[in-house]
Amino acid sequence: MIGPLETRLLERRQSVGTLWAVLLDPDSLPPQELAHTACQVEAAGADLLLVGGSSASPGVFEAGMKAIHASSALPIVLFPGSYHQVVDGADGILFTSLLSGRNPQYLAEEQVQGAPRVHRLGLEPIPTAYLLIESGKPTTVQIVSGTLPLPREEADVVLHHVWAAACMGMRWVYLEAGSGAADPVPVPLLRKVVEEGGVQVIVGGGLKTPEAIAERAAVRPAMIVTGNVLEARRDAGFLAAFAQAVHQA
Question: Which long-range contacts (CB under 8 A, 24 or more apart) does 117-122 make?
Fold first, then answer.
């Protein structure tokens, strides 16, 4: 059943074409910087905030979440790297399974550990398949999860994973090149998944310029995610260019 958060995101998508999500990592910035960044990207035109990371400890993660929650009116969606990061203060969670890999910990074990927390905190789960796409170099997610990414030139292989996700009831698929990826998800691959996948498509990783974002926004995915590129530069003009690039379509 689609809940109020997912309904809100889909309605917002009808207005702007593609959603711009900014990923905030409590392990990369202190709480006050997370709060300041949340305010800046909200003013620039971001549609939602994702909060997650591969290695943030529970205490660090909770402190960061509290700071973000207190500073922004945008929807806040957890994108946790482990069940320890399922904490209070968010509107919902991308409840992901790493379908591109075959490590049972990230296919099912983390989900079983995290589900009771999701239930207890009343978080709205958004069922999402998480697919790592080859990006030119090993990424943090690849190393932490102990899995190999799907080949970037094998669009049919990726599409088959997307169809499998849809058959299992997942309404969203996240195509992830990885934090700091050398090469983002290729436009032809993204187009094939958007046109033939039958799901809401999220794309992120390695998107460092408005031009790279605009190329992918033209394909009309449901959501484009930017992350660590904004940790070094957050001036108003730069952020506005990102918002314009995402929403152009």
Answer: 117/83, 117/86, 117/87, 118/86, 118/93, 121/86, 121/87, 121/88
CA atoms within 13 A on the CB side of 113: 16
Query: Helix or strand or coil: residue 177?
Result: coil
What is the DSSP code string of 103-162?
-HIIIIIHHHHHHHHHHHHTPEEEEEEEEEB--SS--HHHHHHT-PPBPTT-HHHHHHHH
What is the predicted pLDDT for the residue at 208?
Answer: 93
Nearest to 137 by CA among 182, 186, 176, 187: 182
**Amino acid 231: pLDDT:** 76
| Phi, psi dihedral angles at 187 (to 5 degrees) | -60, -45
Q: Pick left, alpha or beta for residue 107 (phi over 0 → left; psi -120 to 50 → alpha; otherwise beta).
A: alpha
CA distance 173 to 96: 9
3-state SS class at 37: helix
How many CB atoms sit inside 10 A of residue 70's CB? 11
pLDDT digits (tens, 9 = 90+) for 184-232: 999 999 999 999 999 999 999 999 999 999 999 999 999 999 997 887 7
Query: Looking at residue 184, what is its pLDDT?
Result: 97
